[in-house]
Write a structure and sequence with these properties.
Chain lengths: 319, 319, 319, 319
């Protein structure tokens, strides 16, 4: 295979703009909307999704938030989570030893440095964010005034459907730069017996980062993931959110001509689509393979962060 | 009412030790157990709890994790959450402006400084933590090796039952130092039509901190909350976790003779009981009053923090 | 005295622009200069200043960098320094106890939240920073590419001259909003027997914040300090830096018409003047009063922070 | 050369204890002393050191405090400095754009993660710190109550003498694990025309870490540095502080039998000797080679950190 993202059709900025207008959800849920495609998860969908739980099995979909995270601050500017004890011998708050002892700790977290949701204020182009708000009005040193992650404080609760691509392709993980195209999504979900429904959360397993954490040689080069074409597929199926176990949901090839992350530009800014990154589906995928059911109750509650443009997260799948 | 915690019977360290032995869950779920009373939430309980969702209504049970938090670092040593933008004009990672723009941010959080769970490694006495592990083996500068919050990565999912004490007493919030005793719990739950069951998460509403956030004068003095007697009540009913909208779940009176937080000592160390603090039940309580149903699906997933002795949290209630 | 900053003549944005052009040092030390008035401190001045040390007395000019700092993050967005132990019982790096024990800690510091220097990249107007560089070229998410504090890594070493205003006026500290005008500077230095020379560091004592730290009631309202007129006085005398024991060197009155910090605008952006804030001159001032010598060797080395727009600092005075 | 620290004579814990008693400075400057060997820098020494400045040349002795620091948090538990902009587009504190614009930033620093001094509370053995204080009294979650770095707030000002070992040996940097023994110190200083005097700050250049920062292959294995024998040499010459451009001042060989850092144990705990680490002497050393003068005015002011067990630092050398 020559070229890491072989098979990804090219798109330029004008192409993105045109497709963005076509797929746009601006105004669809009101001029003041800050939720985007999460509007597709109606209370009925929430309620129906809870009916998917049969065995009471729970799966954490997060990677450990620690210094072994996937970032190299020297190249990406994102540092891995820092966790430090601040008390562990057990002085009481005034240094005197009380009859009990206690321990405390703290975390320093880039909101995008471990498993996380991107707030819709995370990314834009042509000066405007989702729903047409100018970035200078939306984003201040004091946080996002528009589309902050706090809008999701009540959580994302819906049906999760697992697209387990490596399993479908009979491999442990997708190779570097492997593009996932709409037909691939159709095929993997079809084989899983899943017909996508409006409000679904698409759980995209590539297997790459989890394999890397386990010490596997996953190859150099870009991340496997969705091509920009999948934006229309997502729109057509009414998907409310896409969560993936890679860096950026979308395929990352070698830096070349054209915009580097066209899917992000269309998804976050034009469609108002919620993206989740650096997930871990290993445990869930194993269970799905075992019982042949590729759907679950998905529950993810970002921290209640006023002005946040993202949030660390520990999403759950229940079956 | 004279004395902030009037009506709280005294207990000394020997009394705690004796009661602790009686209520102890050490060994009950194995010598290596690190989950404590969460063992009471069986998969069947998880599954049954999801059946409580009827309308698909969602409630965030967290306070905003921001600088308006309840701590004064000068007196308590706990600082309020710090949220700061680290990029908002949109340079790409190498300072060059790309065709898109993005924003990023970070948070610095004491794990006990906003809505949180206490890991069972948070507190102990007589050198031993829950299940008899010595604090020097359990707690290191690198985090908790025993009973870290990471044991809860798969989340706490069970029935939540709301004990709305101020509503029951016809007030907006409990007065400073108001003790909540076993008979009070019986009365408020009985009036709500709730019969506690093993594995339940008790949601204790005092109304105090939320009222204070809204600007109300809640009086000086200690926090209202559970007396140490409630430990036995909790054991008898098989409660898996207690979450409250105050500082410490339990009543805090003026510093006086005797251990200051006897309930914590019994609950965390002897019973292995999960405690959640600084919750906000205002929205949920309003809804419960409206529809007369004081139970919900409770879902709370702490961050996936290796070695954490607590975790920031955005718990959800679904009805 | 009516009006906090009574006696401060008004100036509007156009007035600042005009005076800025007059006082401008752009190009004076080359088109690429990033040091501004620090160029006035020649090696000869450095050497001469060291001759001022007679007794070998040393004075720290910093306030403690701790949670008792002067900021209220809820109003100013600046949080006070956070210092936390990260190890104190003494595990070795792998949790095993070695034959020795050690303790470690960390600090989280806003670079302007305690005693600090402002880098010349800290403030600008009309889009251009000192020496005419556009703020979008100068400032990125990765730090300042122009006029970062790292340019001062070799330290500021020169003669310091103390303008002890409260002592001169026979009071403990200047009242709120008290304006210090050029004639006041002349008077106080003249009384101290100091003739300003090019390259001098002006140490401006108001006494206000130190008094507040000691618990004194310093009154409400703005900070006493320099009026914008002093910019010309500073230019005329070749002052290389001004350091003060208040928030902003300059006088802060009640928010009203006109630019709020005109002196900053002229000093940092047009003159390239180094400003130091939140200093503490109490010990030095006492000593100067005692021996009648109001000059010292001033040595201040900001941290070696690539891209920093300021730096925490512990400046020294030697006599 | 076989064995990284070839030539280092072995010492065991009992040997350290015995030598520690011999070299001990406990009580020498009073039972309450917290300064240790800094007492050797009398005001006369401070004053005399300022006379060493002839040309007004200044040298920063720090490495950049940034993410390119020498630590790998995954192995050492120490993270490199984090610097992040918190404002750079220039909103005023309430999000409204004022007539000026400003930028702000913050740093998160382990106090030992970049160029730093070790406070005397940083390390101990047999439960007692310098001057016989028990570690449980000295060190709390609130910081060091004994021998905190704040005791050094007035700075360290004395003669600095450069021991430029690689230049003396005609190499760019010392090889991994190269031991520096008392005779080596005598030889290098003698060749430099330096006779050590009480109160001197010994500046130990190995060249290793600076070479590594420049991209040189410095070899694997431990750090070159002082052997424990040098403790007596330092005591005999009345050296007040030792600063080095390596991790730990002393030689680090492969983990083997015996205490790993015997020099630290003797120096910090028994002698109360100030150690500075991760310095950079490259610029100073070049200058010394050029003019043949290996002495300078050394000025280093740690941050004013109450309770700190170390401090980031930007030390200066003046000639």
């Amino acid at each position: 295979m020559e070229g890491a993202a072989m098979g990804t059709p090219p798109i330029d900025l004008d192409g993105i703009r045109e497709l963005g207008r076509e797929l746009s959800n601006w105004g669809r849920w009101g001029d003041d909307d800050q939720l985007g495609t999460l509007n597709l998860i109606t209370p009925q969908r929430v309620s129906a999704a809870t009916r998917l739980v049969r065995r009471g099995a729970r799966f954490a979909l997060s990677i450990p938030a620690d210094e072994n995270g996937p970032h190299d601050v020297r190249t990406s500017g994102r540092f891995n989570p820092i966790h430090t004890m601040t008390r562990y011998r057990g002085d009481d708050p005034h240094g005197r030893l009380a009859e009990f002892r206690s321990a405390e700790d703290m975390v320093i977290l880039g909101t995008h440095s471990s498993t996380h949701f991107d707030a819709l204020s995370h990314l834009w182009y042509d000066d405007l964010l989702y729903n047409g708000v100018h970035h200078e009005s939306a984003l201040t040193a004091w946080g996002a005034l528009h589309c902050s992650i706090q809008n999701l404080a009540e959580g994302v609760v819906s049906r999760g459907v697992l697209a387990d691509l490596p399993r479908h392709l009979g491999t442990d993980f997708l190779p570097p730069g492997h593009p996932v195209r709409p037909a691939d999504l159709d095929a993997v979900l079809d084989a899983a017996g899943i017909a996508p429904e409006p409000g679904d959360v698409l759980l995209l397993r590539t297997g790459t980062l989890p394999a890397q954490r386990r010490g596997a040689d996953v190859g150099a080069g870009g991340s496997p993931g969705l091509t920009w074409e999948c934006a229309r597929w997502i729109r057509d199926h009414g998907i409310a959110a896409v969560c993936a176990d890679n860096f950026a949901v979308e395929v990352l090839g070698p830096a070349g001509r054209g915009p580097r992350i066209p899917f992000h530009m269309l998804a976050i800014r034009d469609m108002g689509l919620l993206l989740g990154e650096l997930f871990d589906f290993e445990g869930l995928a194993e269970d799905c393979t075992r019982d042949g059911r590729y759907e679950c109750l998905f529950v993810a509650a970002p921290l209640n962060l006023p002005g946040g443009v993202g949030s660390p997260l520990n999403p759950l799948a229940l079956k």
